[in-house]
Amino acid sequence: MELLRNLFSHICGQQHCWTLGGVTVPFCQRCTGLYAGALCALILIMTFRPRPRASMYWLHGVFMLVMFPFGFHLVEHGGLVRTFTGALFAFGLVYYFALNPISVWSAWRPDRGSDVVKYVSLIAVFIALLLASVQWGGAAIAIALAALGTLGFSTLVILTAANLIVLPGILQTLLHRSAAPTP
Questions:
Q1: What is the largest CA-CA distance in the chain?
Q2: Contact 28, 13 (CB under 8 A)
Q3: Distance between CA 153 and CA 127 in Å, rounded?
Q4: How far apart are CA 33 and CA 84, in angstroms?
Q5: What's the predicted TM-score (pTM) here?
Q6: Cα-flanking dihedrals φ and ψ of residue 58, to 5°?
Q7: pLDDT value, residue 177
Q8: How does pLDDT run across 70-126, given as a tens digit for each residue?
């Protein structure tokens, strides 16, 4: 756990960390939500494949905007709210980060009808389970959160790399479209 704590010290202030059963999670409460939420978000997006449409853009945009008053400390809040807002932000961020790589993936088939309701419901279930685990969990939960958070951070790194890889092709397509003559 000390190795993870040292690694994450370069990207997380590690103030307000969860200590469960005497084991301290290697990232702060907000990053716990962010990283655990990132992995769960990618799993849910890959499973339910919500079609990019205005309602999904708005929903995930609101998830990200919720961070504003709490991330800038405009509203008093504690550990559970930090973890909650981190998880919501992760769901919004991963949704937007996944759009470009998914758009060029030919095997991708978006949206399977009413599964969007299941998708949003499972976001709520995940966040409730996450908050319950940090509230009442012990040492095993702290270790599981460290592993989940490390995988979630890796998810964000992979999605960032995937966006950088597909970006030139997307920009070329956009430039080609804008240069095409209009009838």
A1: 69
A2: yes
A3: 17
A4: 6
A5: 0.89
A6: -65, -45
A7: 81
A8: 888 888 899 999 999 999 999 999 999 998 888 777 666 666 565 788 999 999 999
**Which one, of 24, 21, 20, 22, lies nearest residue 6 by Cα?**
24
Positive or negative, the CA dihedral 124, 128, 131, 137 is negative
Q: What is the reported pLDDT for 179?
A: 73
What's at 172, amino acid-wise? Q
CB of 15 closer than 8 Å to CB of 28: yes
Pairing between β-strand 23-28 and β-strand 17-20 as defined by DSSP bridges: antiparallel
DSSP notation for 60-82: HHHHHHTHHHHHTT-S---HHHH
pLDDT (0 to 100) of residue 107:
64
**Token pair of 116, please?**
């969007």
